[in-house]
Amino acid sequence: MRVCVRMSPPLFLLLLVIIQYASCELPSFQLTTMNTLLQLLQTHNHNSKWNSSSQDLTNPCSWTGVLCNPNNSFITELSLSSFSLFDISNDYSWSSLVCGIETLEKLDVSNNQLAAIAPPLLLSSCGGLKVLNFSNNMLSGNIPSFQTTLERLDLSHNFLHGVIPDQITELVNLSVLDLSYNRLSGSIPASIGQLSRLQQLILSANNLTGEIPTPITLINTLKRFSANQNAFTGAVPLGITRYLSYLDLSYNRLTGSVPSDLLSQPNLLTVDLSFNKLEGSIPVNVSKSMVRLRLGSNQLSGGLPSWSFGNEVPSLTYLEVGNNRLTGMIPPELRLCKNLSLLDLSHNRLFGYVPRELGDLNKLQVVQLDHNNLTGEIPNEIGELQILVRLNMSWNSLNGSIPPSLSNLQKLINLDLQVNNLTGPIPDSFGTMNLLLELQLGRNRLGGVIRSLPTNLQIALNLSRNNFEGPIPQSLSRLQSLEILDLSNNRFNGGIPNFLTQMGSLTQILLSNNLLTGLVPQFHKNVNVSTEGNINLLYPPPTSPSVDRKNNNAASVGIVVASSTASLVELMVVVIVAVIVLRKVHRINH
Ligand SMILES: *[C@@H]1O[C@H](CO)[C@@H](O)[C@H](O)[C@H]1NC(C)=O
Ligand SMILES: *[C@@H]1O[C@H](CO)[C@@H](O)[C@H](O)[C@H]1NC(C)=O
Ligand SMILES: *[C@@H]1O[C@H](CO)[C@@H](O)[C@H](O)[C@H]1NC(C)=O
Ligand SMILES: *[C@@H]1O[C@H](CO)[C@@H](O)[C@H](O)[C@H]1NC(C)=O
Ligand SMILES: *[C@@H]1O[C@H](CO)[C@@H](O)[C@H](O)[C@H]1NC(C)=O
Ligand SMILES: *[C@@H]1O[C@H](CO)[C@@H](O)[C@H](O)[C@H]1NC(C)=O
Ligand SMILES: *[C@@H]1O[C@H](CO)[C@@H](O)[C@H](O)[C@H]1NC(C)=O
Ligand SMILES: *[C@@H]1O[C@H](CO)[C@@H](O)[C@H](O)[C@H]1NC(C)=O
Ligand SMILES: *[C@@H]1O[C@H](CO)[C@@H](O)[C@H](O)[C@H]1NC(C)=O
Ligand SMILES: *[C@@H]1O[C@H](CO)[C@@H](O)[C@H](O)[C@H]1NC(C)=O
Ligand SMILES: *[C@@H]1O[C@H](CO)[C@@H](O)[C@H](O)[C@H]1NC(C)=O
Ligand SMILES: *[C@@H]1O[C@H](CO)[C@@H](O)[C@H](O)[C@H]1NC(C)=O
């Protein structure tokens, strides 16, 4: 058994170390190195997760982020992730030290402020390092040459520029290469196809150009290829998905059509080609295993392939094909995609009815059918989507009345039916939709007297450009969180009720072009009010703050006014913050 000695420790620590020496079996050189490292971190770095009061100095294997072999006879992994590391001097003292641990297989220094990689780490002199993680540091300059033993190399979230060097292929055992979120330019070297053990190639968010090299399609170990948010051009290479489970080429400048077998490869789970310039139609055959398919914001045309979605795609959970040029009807066979949670068909040229079969898809949370040419009525069955959070059918030509069954959507937060051809009233049962924060019904032909409204509306209530009539509904007085109220261009009559001025969150109220009469009440000056185009409104004379109270108390009045204004501002800030927080909590990402 070895005696563990720490380099130049204070005397009492040395005694402590000697007393406890029996628990330590690391080679003395590794122990020395670790204690030097500890000292270095203590001296230069006050946020380190290591310090002498919390670490058992004799047993580095017990320190946070240190992993040893099973009998603690040598160190195998060192994770200094989020240790607030920065380069102390030009000799990168701390990382050079690490190289002394020749048994080290994995070094993770992610989430620090390191500006350079210590040269010993790049050379084989550092031993058999297999994993090097420099993610989220401050590396700049070109990608250096690394030691060839590496299997996983993560340089993501730095400031590296220049090209991906051809020499990268010298890292013959590489299985994970993550260069995402840097400033790399140039094209992917075709030689990358020689990395025959690569499983993940992640190049997202750089400035890479040129075509996606075909040799990538030959790497039969590759499971994930992400090259999104670059400036790649040319076509999606044929056979790119042959071995892949995950493909992300979104946010590039790819052209041409989607290869007909691209989506049908049996291992595929996720394909994202959104935000490119792809043309042609959506391939008919889609892999049974597909979970997430995003083809939005391209120039795709033709119809939604009806038979393949359905029986063939039972796992499909996210289908996003919005913002294309798709035509035809929404295929009722979509009902067979039982796991569908997000359906985005918006901004296309789809026509015909909304199939009632959508009501079978009881895992739907987000439905976006807006900006199409859909006609006919909103099917009652939509009300069966128990966990629907967002329904957007705006900007179509839907007619008929709003089905009262929609009020069964008790999880609904955003309902947008604006710019359609809907008639009839707002169903009374809408008063029970307690989570609804946004109701957009503008530009329809809705009408009648409003008796009941959802009670927690917050983002907006927009009833503009309809045929609503009667007095401004009393039920509005409960909407204490509402920010935008648009009742303009209707036939509301009677007076403007005082309770509107008490709606504390209101920032905008549009009452123009109605049949309102009487005195316009005094709104808070921060509320944007529009009232023009009514028949007979009286405006109160502009009031000025009561400064006319002349006397020796003027100064103290001023103080009272000032301090109450200040607390009002504070209160508003609190309310606004609370509203923002609440809204974030309620919003769903997609
Ligand atoms: C040592 O670490 C512990 C726990 O991480 C911390 O509470 C303590 O303040 C640190 N002491 C010094 C001197 O940094
Ligand atoms: C600890 O394990 C290694 C192999 O991992 C072995 O070579 C060594 O002899 C073991 N040491 C002791 C003291 O058991
Ligand atoms: C590198 O570290 C980051 C952050 O700790 C982690 O998310 C990432 O998965 C690591 N990379 C590899 C290749 O293990
Ligand atoms: C690559 O890995 C194999 C074992 O899988 C090993 O024999 C070989 O030495 C490694 N190559 C390098 C350059 O480290
Ligand atoms: C990307 O590269 C092009 C030229 O290749 C250059 O004009 C552009 O500024 C670069 N963009 C960024 C964000 O580096
Ligand atoms: C789609 O798949 C079917 C059955 O697997 C096959 O017969 C057909 O040729 C495929 N169509 C295309 C366009 O690949
Ligand atoms: C549907 O989703 C559930 C969990 O969300 C999953 O367990 C199930 O396997 C999925 N069904 C299919 C056919 O993929
Ligand atoms: C919607 O359909 C009508 C006829 O049904 C057609 O005239 C119009 O151009 C279509 N609009 C769009 C945006 O496709
Ligand atoms: C709305 O419905 C009316 C009457 O049915 C019809 O004349 C009109 O063309 C429709 N408008 C739109 C935009 O669909
Ligand atoms: C809705 O429009 C369709 C034509 O698009 C028409 O056949 C139907 O009668 C209309 N329904 C109502 C209730 O106006
Ligand atoms: C509906 O979609 C339109 C356009 O995509 C968008 O502007 C609007 O905010 C959406 N409505 C809701 C409630 O999300
Ligand atoms: C209310 O909806 C109408 C019709 O879509 C729209 O034009 C208007 O801008 C909306 N009002 C507000 C305040 O956003």
TrEMBL record:
It holds the Pfam family LRR_8. Its EC number is 2.7.11.1. One of its GO terms (cellular component) is plasma membrane. The chain crosses the membrane at residues 554-582. Keywords: ATP-binding, Glycoprotein, Kinase, Leucine-rich repeat, Membrane, Nucleotide-binding, Repeat, Serine/threonine-protein kinase, Signal, Transferase, Transmembrane, Transmembrane helix. It comes from Helianthus annuus. Residues 43-69 form the Leucine-rich repeat-containing N-terminal plant-type domain. Gene3D superfamilies: Ribonuclease Inhibitor (3.80.10.10). InterPro entries: Leu-rich_rpt (IPR001611), Leu-rich_rpt_typical-subtyp (IPR003591), LRR_dom_sf (IPR032675), LRR_N_plant-typ (IPR013210). It is found in: Membrane. The lineage of its organism: Eukaryota, Viridiplantae, Streptophyta, Embryophyta, Tracheophyta. Residues 1-24 form the signal peptide. Its main location: membrane. PROSITE patterns: LRR. It comes from the Eukaryota. It is a single-pass membrane protein. The keyword Translocase does not apply. GO terms for biological process: defense response; response to other organism. The keyword Acetylation does not apply. GO terms for molecular function: ATP binding; protein serine/threonine kinase activity. This is non-specific serine/threonine protein kinase.
